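User: I'm new to structure prediction. If I give you an amino acid sequence, what do you actually give back? Let's try with this one:
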Amino acid sequence: VRSSKFRHVHGSASKDRFENVNSTASSADSNIVAGNSRFLALPWNGGGGPFLVHNLGGVGRFEPIPKMFQGHSASVQDLDFCPFDDCVIASASEDTTVRVWDFSSKVSADAGIKLDSDVPESCSTVLAGHSKKATLVRWHPVAKDVLLSVSYDCTVRLWDVSKAKEAMCLAEGHSDTIQHVAWSMNGSQYATTCKDKKVRLCDPRKSTVAHTFSGHEGSKGARVTFLGAREEFATVGFSKQSDRQLWFWDARNTSKALHEISMDQASGSIFPFFDIDTNLLYLGGKGDCNIRFFEVVDGQPHAHYVDQYSAKDPQRGMCMLPKLACDTSSAEVARFLRLGNGYIEPVAFVVPRKSDAFAEDLYPPTFSGKPSLSADEWFGGKDADPLTVSLAPGAAAAQASHPPSQPDAQPVAPPATAAAPAHPPAPEP
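Assistant: Good question. You get back a string of structure tokens that encode the predicted 3D arrangement of the chain. For your 429 residues, that looks like this:
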């Protein structure tokens, strides 16, 4: 039996959930729902392109006609909270624009966000440049004010939000619709999947495709995620026979996948989420009732199936919340928001422990929510790893009263992994 502290991780949905949710169908490539440690957001049905931002702790029924963020003239396709400011969110819309909203003036310490009226477009910065609908937005993981957007015009654009202008544009290199995009851990590169069945590793500051190779043979729903500080990444997609697949790749040699796992036959594309702190890779399929999770290891077989969380109803979208949103007293290692038909439920993944004392072995220093670089530094060629902070009780206060000589804690490093057996266990459907 393989030794791992995550062998018995289990998922459970909260009894308290958000009801009366009236979200749009949104983009086929979007997670639909977004969240951070304080708020959740999702596109809402209605004229123009409204979307909702709500307090994460405010479970219960939404109002029939809640107050919205109103600025787009067509439906919102994707949302992404800024990793360095809880009160900033980016939106991508069918109206071809990207907007960045700062709603800190609507937030109080005791009540969170409270809207007396709709938030108008004057509260946002518009980023215009795409010629067709914008489908995805992703904030840079370590550099402040750097935002990436993807559109049906087959371009990837980088924006300097502090100057409200386009900084870079990858206009050539994608011959068909871009399905998904993901930053590497330090943001020195990003990867895309495309309807032409190719995966591309891109150099963002040169606006070039550094490498192109063949991915999954099915033409729909491929996605990609980097695996922390490793020179490796994973893709999820379909075979020609509609088998859903999980493949692992070495970024230095993409002539053949390092390992291939065939999971099942289903039509829904898969949302991949990798937790750098625990090396757990979570996979939730659109239209599925479950969330599978694997432990990623160094060397063959690169991933071990652990277990799955099963629900009664299928999910339409989902997102993984920052580690700062987890309850360390119950050994919770991940928390998701799962969008169902008319509701959003929080799902917690917990390592069973007899003691409620802080489990230091489960919580290495995690992303602090502070930028490592400014936009100018990053566009100028600098790279840096994410800054980290301890989740131990009192650690944040101690660090505030005795700040280190460096701006912040040490960069993220991948946790140690257990030795890999010769043969991987077969994944359960």
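You can read the tokens as a compact description of the fold. Here is one thing that stands out. Residues 404-410, 413-429 have pLDDT under 50 and may be disordered.
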